[in-house]
Amino acid sequence: MKAAAFAYARATSVVNALELLAAHGDKAKVLSGGQSLMPAMNLRLLSPDILVDIGGLAELRGIAVRGDLLAIGALTRHVDLLHSPEVALHAPLLRDAVAQVAHPAIRNRGTIGGSLAHADPASELPACVVALDATIVVRGPLGERRIAATAFFNGIYDTALAPDELLVAVEVPVAGHGSAFFFHEYARRHGDYALVGLAARAVVAGDRFAELRLGFFAVGDRPLLAAAANRLINVSVTPALLAEATTALADELDPQEDQQASPAMRRHLAAVLLRRCVAALLARPELGVTS
Amino acid sequence: MTVTRAPAGLSVLDRPNSYIGKTVPRPNLDRLLQGRGQYVSDLELPRMAHVVFLRSPYAHARIGAIDADAAKRMPGVISIVTGRELERVITPWVGVLSHLKGLKSAPQHAIAVDKVCWQGEAVAAIVATSRAAAEDAMEHIAVDYEELGAVTDMRTALDSATPVIHASLGDNLAFERTLNAGDVDHAFSESEVVEADFVFGRHTGVTLEPRAVVADWNAAEARLTIYQGTQAPHMVQNIAALHLGLKEAQVRVVCKDVGGSFGIKVHIYADEMATYALSKLLRRPVKFVADRVESFNTDIHARDHRCRGRIGVKPDGTITAFEIDDLTGIGPYSMYPRTSAIEANQVVNLVGGPYVALNYRARARVVFQNKNVMCQYRAVGHPIACSVTEGLVDLAAAKIGMDPVEIRRRNLIADDAYPCASPSGMKFEQLSHHVSLAKLLQMMDYDALRAEQAALRARNIYRGIGIASFIEVTNPSAAFYGVGGAKISSQDGVAVRLDAQGSVICQTSITEQGQGSESLTAQIVGSVLGVSMDRVRVTLGDTDNTPYGGGTWASRGAGIGGEAALQAAKVLRRNILDVAAAILQSTPAGLDIVNNSIVNAGDGAPRMELNELARIVYFRPDTLPPGIQPELMATRHFVPRQYPFAFTNGVQASWLEVDTETGFVTLLKHWVVEDCGTIINPQLVDEQIRGGVVQGLGAALFEKCIYDERGQLTNANMADYLVPMSGEMPDIEIGHVVSPTQETELGAKGAGEAGTAGAAAAVANAVNDALRPFGATITEIPLTPQVILTALGRI
To answer: Please, are residues A2 and A42 in contact by the beta-carbon 8 Å criterion?
Structure first.
């Protein structure tokens, strides 16, 4: 279980990293935290000609509040998200999600940019940025592009990022008044990939949702912003309405079969998650129980 | 809390400052924690080469041409060897034993010749200057395979339409055993009869350190040194010599630290045999360390049984009969040299074992398949026998509306009924089912738990209680393997000697894989001699430097190796006191050894330190009285003769919650009461029980080797094969009952497998208890959310 031979370049700046990517095209892979890339290389599932290591680029690290936006550098590690006061205050969904990502050793190395660029449909952070309506900032030979998170994920391990582009930051709208968040996933063991997960952001006004964004993961080839949420906005949520929403949700999902769960089971668990999410956000436990 | 049921009276172990029954730190702890362990994986020798095996991607295929020309030209490559070429150095083997009547298997080669029979079987060896160079070269070998139909479903393996894997054997049946005791039909005709199909997933032992071997053929000495993480060094010596055409004296097996075994490392694997042969062929040291993927594909798998069980019960709770029909698929070969019929054989031996019922009928069939080989893994057969038995007992209780505890109280063999035998002929010296059950109920506060369960059900919270009584085979005599012709020793030996400064050097034939063999040996020797443990140095795992013996497996290290240590230490003590009496002009009976000194037996007054005695014996023997020839080294061997196995017993309970909407199970608490006889080191015993329970919980909820219909193992990695992790484990509370075996002075029985034996049964019974309001019963493990939701009709 040894990686095939590869060349290695440690980028000295973002510009230098972009030059290296331009020179090597899709024969290059960007090395960030390495928590997905290195195992794949050791299993010889991936054999890039060259690794462009961006680990030394301090300009890509750090968390800052800029106006209404929380800007998170691509190299920010999971562990930093977990302990950041800014994240806890302005985007607690990320903190709650990261606590479910793998194990401490992996969280100590893995980065938010790496996770988003890798685009595993079962991972937590892509669903979070979709639910948070975040913007992905990428830089390429022609300059900077800003891509809505909802338009960033194209499929399994597939994003809007071109081979000569580098994901440099994520911008998350800060949580406003009345904001509420819900994160939960069903995984066989702590730290495993979820069978189904849900990252949700809501604005609750009185007994209703003024806003509700539901980012499901592990239910298709990319994180899904569920349209079923719209049925629950600005209305009094009744068990019957919630049942309609869960039915609508099942139609939206296109879950894969794998060793842990059939598509039917994933649809079922997504419905349970939706009920429990709504019950928790509205503080109405009775809605969480099967009708 | 420990309940002791030993007869009163002092033994050789009841001495001042005895270490027996005390939690003392393992002597090897600092060494391991400071990173000074000596694992084979870390071993480097001059001129050492690394071997990587090209493994078959097909479950069943004919091997055509192998083109390794390009690979041979790759940098660092030393040699590329096929099965045909290696056959000239090492002979094939057949994994059968004569006491398992009718067991058959086909010749297996170190590297496949002509045909591969499972995905992962080695097809060629690439020897290079590094593992990475060998892996690079491996990608350039082209093999022509002609894929053959794969036998994957054990249920159809014997059908006439199914291909026969080994034509020379005639069919795919490896072994069949039937047993008929009492009158089952009559018993069933007078009882309520409940039946169920029990399904057990195929799983494997996942060791932290994979299998690792360095073989070093020294042509000048005509001697092979094998450094290997193994549980049985003398067995490896015997087998390597036999198949390489050497005398055993030409093979030395060295086994230092081992990163986990669990029965995985008690077998002889084809790739290890190939490594020995490659060293002989290439006349240089060759190292093989399995990587994680090939470990999943080649380390033995276990369980994978389908067992139909029936139980007869009367309205008053009397169990009248058990019946089982067990089927298991073992891969394409019976494993060498212990065979792959043992697990099914154990299931037949053990079903119904804790209970009085004398009517018992059993059939077990063992079939070949094109999957990885199966063989003995921790608690061989026990989890299956226990899950079937205890599952049936709970079903019988539910049928007649009796509490699961009450039906056990009415049917467990009485504690004063021993010695006695089971319907399958197992002899029980002294078990303690009832006192163990009583202790368990007290520890878990059974009645309060039942009340809590009822209260929570009203709030749609579904919790369950599961109980499982079990028996366990330990301290096996020659009845296990020796009588069937295997050169696997059932006896063990220990040599102890006093060195020139009064310290003790002890060599034992049992081995250490983390369970504390070294510690328990030092505790026994130190206690019997009257020497502090820091003065006792234990050597294990070297066929040149220890007595001959079996090693550590089948829960035998403490009971057999420990008794040998006790007897050897007794002799040395007597010899020391003889010399001391001569020096001190006293009598041996008038003296004792306490705290490294000779003292008066009567008043304990110190007379002479051991180092002074040693000084005189080794350097000034001229000052001893005439005619005295001191003998400060003693060796003793031990093997059980009276009972084929020292059976132990115990009972486990699980308390868990099922989320009936998601199918997820949360383990809340687990209790074990077990009786392993004399406890040498309570912490080591409890660690063994806990570790064993966790492996049983892994089987209950998580672990399964998933094969597709073409015989491809589809989850051979740590992300998809779910080992139990601490986050999902409950607190495990352990209690003991102590019924020492009278066959030894030590009185110790084994404790290594008790936890694994009953854990899955307790969990399965608890899940079914939780689901009772839904009318769902599940008799399949692992109990995944998918299985539970399906049983609940939610998906």
So the answer is: yes
Q: Is A262 on the interface with B (CB under 8 A)?
A: yes
CATH 3.30.230.20 at B301-478+642-791, yes or no: no
* CATH topology assigned to domain A7-50: 3.30.43
- CA B204 → CA B300, B377, B532, B648, B785, distances in Å? 6, 8, 40, 24, 21
Cβ–Cβ contact B708 with A under 8 A? no
Whether the per-residue pLDDT at B27 is higher than 90: the answer is no
Q: Where in chain A is the domain with CATH 3.30.43.10?
A: 7-50
pLDDT in tens, A246-262: 999 999 999 999 989 99
- Which CATH code is given to the segment(s) B2-37+491-638? 3.30.365.10
Q: Distance from A247 to chain B by nearest Cα, in Å?
A: 14
Residues of A in contact with B298 (CB under 8 A): none
pLDDT-based confidence at residue A86 (cuts at 50, 70, 90): very high
Burial B547-561 (b: 16+ CB within 10 A, else e): bebbbbbbbbbbbbb
CB A259 to CB B714 under 8 A? Answer: yes
Query: Contact A37/A25 with Cβ under 8 angstroms?
Result: no
Contact B136 A4 (CB under 8 A): yes
Cα(B640)–Cα(B646) distance, rounded to whole angstroms? 9
**B687 pLDDT more than 70:** yes
- Of A189, A262, A265, which has the smallest distance from its Cβ to B725's Cβ? A189
Residue B731's pLDDT is 98
Find, in chain A, the residue whose alpha carbon is nearest to that of B719.
A192
pLDDT at residue B525, as a whole number: 97
Confidence of residue B17 (pLDDT cuts 50, 70, 90): confident
Show which of residues 163-222 on chain A sit within 8 Å of chain B, judged by CB atoms: 186, 188-193, 195
Cβ–Cβ contact B774 with A under 8 A:
no
With beta carbons less than 8 A apart as the criterion, state whether B632 and B641 touch.
no
CATH numeric code, B47-148+208-260+264-298: 3.90.1170.50
What ipTM goes with this model?
A: 0.96
Task: Retrieve residue B283's tokens.
Answer: 């006349």
Please tell me the least confidently modeled range out of A90-104, A156-170, B23-37, B131-145: B23-37
The predicted structure's pLDDT at residue B9: 56
Q: To the nearest whole angstrom, how far is the Cα of A148 from the nearest Cα of chain B?
A: 31
Where do the structural domains in chain B lie, given as residue ranges? 2-37+491-638, 47-148+208-260+264-298, 301-478+642-791
What percent of chain A clears pLDDT 90, i.e. is strictly above it? 96
Angstrom distance (rounded) from CA A130 to CA A194:
17
The domain made up of A60-173 is a member of CATH 3.30.465.10: yes
Q: Where does chain A hold its CATH 3.30.390.50 domain(s)?
A: 194-288
Mean pLDDT computed over B584-607: 96
Asked if B785 lies within 8 A of A186 by C-beta distance, the reply is yes
Q: Which string of b and e fits B688-700 if b means at least 16 CB within 10 Å?
A: bbbbbbbbbbbbb
Name chain A contacts of B661, Cβ cutoff 8 Å.
272, 290
> Is pLDDT at B2 greater than 90 in this prediction?
no
What are the start and end residues of each CATH 3.30.465.10 domain in chain A?
Answer: 60-173
In which band, very low, low, confident or very high, does the pLDDT at B16 lie, cut at 50, 70 and 90? confident
Interface of A with B in 26-85 (CB under 8 A): 43-44
- In this structure, the strands spanning B427-428 and B646-658 are unpaired
Q: Judge whether residue B3 has pLDDT over 70.
A: no
**Topology annotation, domain A194-288:** Enolase-like; domain 1 (3.30.390)
**Are B2-37+491-638 and B47-148+208-260+264-298 in the same CATH fold?**
no
pLDDT at position A92 is: 97
Beta strands in B357-405 (DSSP E): 359-367
| Strand-by-strand arrangement of the B606-609 sheet | B591-594, B597-600, B606-609
